[in-house]
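Dock magnesium ion; give full complex structure.
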Amino acid sequence: MAIAVLAEAVISQIAAGEVVERPTSVVKELLENALDAGAHSIRVEVEGGGRSLIRVSDDGAGICAAEVELAFARHATSKLRNAADLSQIMSLGFRGEALAAIAAVSRVRAITRARTEATGTQLRMDAGQLLAREGIGAPPGTVIAVENLFFNMPARLKFLKSETSERTHMARLLARYALAYPLVRFTLQFDGREVFQATGGGAAREALLAAYGAELARALLEIAPQTADGIEVRGFVSPPEQHRANRRELTFFVNGRWVQDQQLSSAVLQAYHTLLPGGRYPTVMLQLQVPPAEVDVNVHPAKAEVRFRAPDAIFRAVGRAVRSALLQQAPVAAGTPREWSNGPQPGLGDWSWKVWSGAGAQQPNAGAATNPVSLPAAQPEQTSALSALERIPLLRVLGQVGLAYVVAEGPDGLYLIDQHAAHERVLYEAFVAQAADAQVSAQALLQPATVEVPPAAASLLRQQLSTLNALGFDISEFGASAFLVRAIPTVLGPVDATRAVSSVIDELEEDESLLAQAGERRIIARVCKRASVKAGQALSPAEQQQLVRGLEACSAPRTCPHGRPTMIHLSVSVLERQFGRK
Ligand code: ADP
Ligand code: MG
């Protein structure tokens, strides 16, 4: 065959095949258009599993009489003007393809009236060809009726799934959109019978019920909206005891768009790790709001996939949200504390602990039975080493040991956390972040405190006053060797102001080098060291929890600001080896 450019009608059909794969895709595109038009109420009527009829009616903005034909032209859209807009897409549509694609493979009757106009317009089209157009009285909004879908594509018709299968898919689709858009009223009818309604009253209950059935809907755990790194996550997750054989019930909405994403799924499954039996999957419906510039929606003709600019932050936010919902609702059973036998345990010397140091060194075998853990030498400010920068997973706090360590479980084993070092790290990062933004928040003292210091210390303090004041202190000179403290940095929490200042002075005196190169960060590190909880201090479960949550949020959680490890990790595989399971 000689080469020839395809006729427009053939091109349209080929293109249509990508957008409209099956009757459910028509429903999805029309639904998205209605949502983009700001509809408060959307009715979907389906006959014959969508082959005979799909009619979607909305009370949205409608289409101006002058633009109705244009709406059905290929690459015609009101939602995008230039390529730059692609990075700011807030609407569900933007490709201007759906109506054209749908019209190319069916018979369409459209009635629409723009809210700003007095009368409506009716169009009739057959395989993309305009048959008739007339003015018509109609309420504001749009009704698109799609008849005889794929009548001109016998190959597609032959491979369509059963009517039942289409109905199931459509019902799932509607229920999920209803969950994602709780303020919109949705109605779904099959062959004249109403099968689903969400009243748009903002309650997720009906939609949950329709999407998941009564039992699961009741059991689902809600993730209240939470924001980290500009990413908001909310939704519902099944408790660990409810699981299913496949991953079909992992639903993700990103900026109101239902997307399939392998990596989001992995983040969720990772959060469930060790909570579900092997080969079993949870039911999850998550809604993410991310800045539009962070997500590329133009990856897929059906817009079912997206690409994230900073996937790690997204996956972390998702993992965190899911894991914390699971841990909150499924707390550790409170048991009586075990009696620990005194003295060294036989064989402990063989344990290989994974220890993080500032330099990222991993200490393999420590040797001596009495001291299985040998910590690498402190190496201040080496937190840039890779392993130190590795974030930690969400941990389940198990308790405190020896008034010095918090024990926690993660998806990958046991963590022993040095409470003092960890707290130093948490305070330090909070402090540095604020200082970097020049937004150090200070807590004003109810009563300004006067601090008397020895003359030598006074001169040290005087030299550092501007640095300290930039860090959230408000200290001013008050005579030869006295200072007036009006505020201290908020991150220090409820500490006695006098103590806070004198501990800074102690630090200044202790570390001469601090003076030489009065690095702000070094002062911060010093202040945090003083302000952090010490070994020997009992922490309530809530305090342990707070400490671990804080550590999870750190960018270099595995070392303290001075480079010492904050934690020891005993991986599942090490445990298995030690117990002779491997
Ligand atoms: P896209 O949604 O990508 O813009 P479509 O082919 O789905 O492309 O729709 C083309 C245009 O028709 C839309 O940009 C919009 O202006 C208009 N339109 C389609 N459906 C509706 C509707 N239900 N209400 C109002 N306008 C609509
Ligand atoms: Mg559209």
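Observed: The longest helix spans residues 311-329.
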